[in-house]
Design brief:
Number of helices: 13
Number of domains: 3
Helix content: 25-40%
Order of helices and strands: HHHHEHHEEEEEEHEEHEHEHEEEHEHEH
Length: 450
């Protein structure tokens, strides 16, 4: 059997449009659209049979029973997609199709009737995605992206009525998915008692209300009716300008770990990504936006290195295996000598400590024992009862417990080595640095900015 024999049997199952005919042989010839392929095959069959070319299989009024005429509506669908995306800024897109079960059944029946394999050629869905997608690209100037497009248009062919005399298709036939936009940066927290993200009140569950003695509701005593344990957070100090600039529906803050509420975040800052859901604007001036964030934060926080980012950056930041450098003010409950302090710090330098889950967090974290390395440590005795300590440690090292011992739950510890009680009275994070920094690769940064 030749390809013309197969094409003849397909065409005999008419009325079959050129696109549906050509689609059956998409894997046997290349460089043409399915419609062009079908027309060429139909012409070749007519020449071989010495018959006039008949694109309608002898019935000018008949609609293709396989696709029900949808293969002639690519332009209409592309225009509907563009209309549905009006008002959204995007550089990349993808088109998907929900194929009606009847068309899928018709495709299978056509191949079976012609004696072709079930998977011969190309599916209606694949052609529809490609042909409508090409037209959307030409109309918008955007580029197709099969991995993580800015927007996804889902064509619900089954939901669309037959086109009326004006060629109109109902609004609900195109569903639009707007994917998030992202910016990366590093933040510094310049005031204490500011959490990284919003911290709802545990007593009222964030409602800001509690039951009154006489019935009804009254402001929560624990949070003063605000619904939050802290008035501000790094999230609240940084996300509003980004959300406004991208004109999105919601902004989410993703940090590379977090510092204690009472700790400052100084030095090089902590990596973060702000995700904006359903943004209407994606191209922002990162330098101007960074200045706007810092003005909005009003000295409580500061961001640096702000740059456009991708969805991949969220996981890269959240999974960053970073070491951290801390500076601590330490108070002792008995006199300590300079020699004893330096000997204790020398013992800590380079050692691996075992730490049980600290008592201060064991209500929200699983109880376990883990080991962490102290890469470096330096100390300066300020007076017999006070010292300044700087520690560079592995990610996940509980430095407050490294100082206090947490009732012997951290071994070794500064308190244990000195034989006196020790407590961190002030904590600053100076650096959060990983071997695989999110933007360590200049090529990745260039791609994100493009």
């Amino acid at each position: 059997m030749t390809i013309l024999d197969d094409a003849r049997r397909v065409a005999e199952n008419g009325p079959v449009c050129d696109a549906c005919l050509g689609r059956c042989f998409a894997d046997r010839s290349f460089g043409l659209t399915n419609e062009e392929r079908g027309r060429s095959l139909r012409t070749a069959v007519a020449l071989e049979d010495d018959e006039p070319y008949d694109p309608e299989n002898g019935n000018e009024d008949a609609q293709c029973w396989v696709c029900e005429g949808e293969s002639q509506r690519f332009d209409e669908w592309a225009e509907r997609v563009v209309d549905a995306l009006d008002g959204w800024k995007f550089d990349t897109y993808q088109v998907g199709t929900r194929t009606p079960p009847l068309i899928e059944e018709n495709e299978a029946l056509l191949r079976e009737s012609a004696g072709l394999p079930d998977d011969a050629g190309e599916s209606f869905k694949s052609e529809f995605n490609r042909e409508v997608g090409k037209r959307v690209g030409r109309l918008t100037g955007a580029e197709v992206d099969f991995e993580r497009p800015d927007v996804l248009a889902l064509l619900n062919v089954e939901a669309a009525p037959r086109a009326d005399e004006d060629g109109d298709i109902s609004d609900h036939a195109v569903e639009v998915q707007i994917n998030s936009a992202f910016v990366y940066g590093r933040y510094k927290k310049l005031e204490r008692d500011i959490p990284q993200t919003e911290w709802p009140c545990r007593e009222c569950g964030g409602s800001g209300k509690q039951l009154a003695d006489g019935g009804g509701e009254e402001p929560c005593d624990h949070c003063g009716g605000s619904g939050y344990l802290y008035e501000e957070s790094v999230e609240e100090l940084t996300t509003p300008p980004v959300l406004a600039a991208m004109d999105g529906d919601e902004a989410l803050f993703h940090g590379a770990g977090r510092e204690d509420v009472d700790a400052l975040m100084l030095g090089t800052g902590r990596p973060f990504v702000i995700e904006v859901k359903r943004p209407r604007q994606r191209d922002v001036d990162a330098e101007a936006l960074q200045a706007e964030i810092n003005e909005f934060a009003d000295g409580n926080a500061e961001v640096t290195d702000l740059a456009p980012a991708t969805h991949e950056m969220v996981e890269r930041v959240k999974e960053l295996d970073a070491s951290k450098t801390y500076r601590m003010d330490v108070a002792f409950d008995a006199d300590v000598t300079e020699q004893a302090l330096q000997e204790a710090v020398e013992e800590l330098r380079g050692t691996t400590v075992e730490q049980e889950t600290p008592q201060r967090v064991d209500h929200r974290r699983a109880s376990m024992t883990r080991t962490r390395t102290v890469y470096d440590a330096e100390a300066e005795l300020l007076d017999a009862r006070h010292a300044e300590l700087e520690v560079h440690g592995e990610g996940g090292l509980y430095v407050k417990e490294l100082v206090s011992s947490d009732d012997g739950r951290t071994v070794p510890s500064l308190a244990g080595l000195l034989g006196v009680g020790a407590e961190v009275t002030a904590l600053d994070v100076l650096a959060v640095e990983g071997e695989d920094e999110p933007f360590a690769d200049p090529e990745y940064l260039a791609e994100a900015e493009e």
